Target: Small RNA 2'-O-methyltransferase
Amino acid sequence: MLMTVSTTHTPATDLGYLLVKHPDRVHRFDMPAGQAYVMYPEATAERCTAALLVDIDPHALHSGRKRGAKAPDSAGLGQYVNDRPYAASSMLASALGKVFRSALRGASKDRPELAGTAIPLEVEVPVLRCRGGAELAPRLFGPLGWAAEATPIPLDDDWGDSRYVRLRLTGTLRLADALNHLYVLLPVLDDAKHYWVAPDEIDKLIRAGEGWLAGHPERALITRRFLAHRRALAGAALARLAEERSRLAELDDVADPDTIEEPAAEKRQPLAVQRREAVLAALRELGAARVLDLGCGPGALLADLVRDRRFTEIVGADVATRSLEIAERRLRLDRLPDRQRERIKLWQTALTYRDDRLRGFDAAVLMEVIEHVDPPRLTALEDAVFGHAAPGAVLVTTPNAEYNVHYELDGMRHHDHRFEWTREQFAAWSARVAGLYGYAVRLAGIGEDDPAAGSPTQIAIFTKEVSA
Model:
């Protein structure tokens, strides 16, 4: 069995860091019924390909089965003469889980920022049994952002096509997401597992399907096949996925602080997403590891911070306990491993009062927060954040009032906004705060830039000046 993963991300050899497998070596792993190998047939700065080869011993596969376990090829010569050593199946998925364990979790000690970044990927599986026809592969991979080509492998002119396909996937995704898609969907396409499916298989499915399976249009088919058509297990898994869908729907009903109708151009890339990406990019540039999200609301930015391992301590702070409860559910803190859970804290606090817990952090984020504060109380927020907490950097985003001409508004962008500043007003406030509390500041825009009105969101990046 063979599978290759290629990228043209520059430098492409960073793929080795993401997979935690050096491109200059052949890596060998013992499997219950054979060996798995990882090698790099090409490794240049422009393009890098990692190949996973699984060499199955049919005799070892049969001998290693637990007594009483059923398998599709369980009688006579079928135990030894079958397609298992050649066609991608659950055995390839098992090898994936063992060989690329860190990559599946999205962990990369050497390239943490890249592990959280979508990169161009190309996956090829030369031989894959596809029960249901070649058209099933695009149905499964298409909703996940892949362009999927499943080309039937012909037998000969008289017999026509075989039940096998050559699968090629192209897309721009996080490598961890790509590997989890393959871990689940390769055995689903094959529709046969080489081992006895126990209840713990539900946890494997839910874990690998986190963030995509609950909303997949073919989730019922995927669940049944992954759990080998065991009705009780499939029912339990679908119930958990339904709970996940309800949770996500509840979060979707929680409005972002800036809930206006965006212009058509912005709808392709929501402004809320652009804001979070800009904040994350600034935090990475600053080298921040311990980060405060002040006025975190329902936790959209917290979720992005948690996915990036470079942020070793993350605190979400908000005055509203309801927002913190929603953020806790969004982050699924009760289900995280202890080490992950220790990275994240949620604190109820008012940002206009000094709080000793907020001192000593590398950076603090006030994303779409200050415009919700009554102007007479702004000086108290400034003192509490810039003066008392005094992080190494403070990132502040707020609407640009000049850009509101692009929206059909009777007033401000949100009913709870106490003010919205022009670029000149924001620059004046930023300069005053920076000078008062010993910070340097630079300003930028977020979103599409209009020559006259500027960008829809403005950001100030304050960095603590070091005394001579």
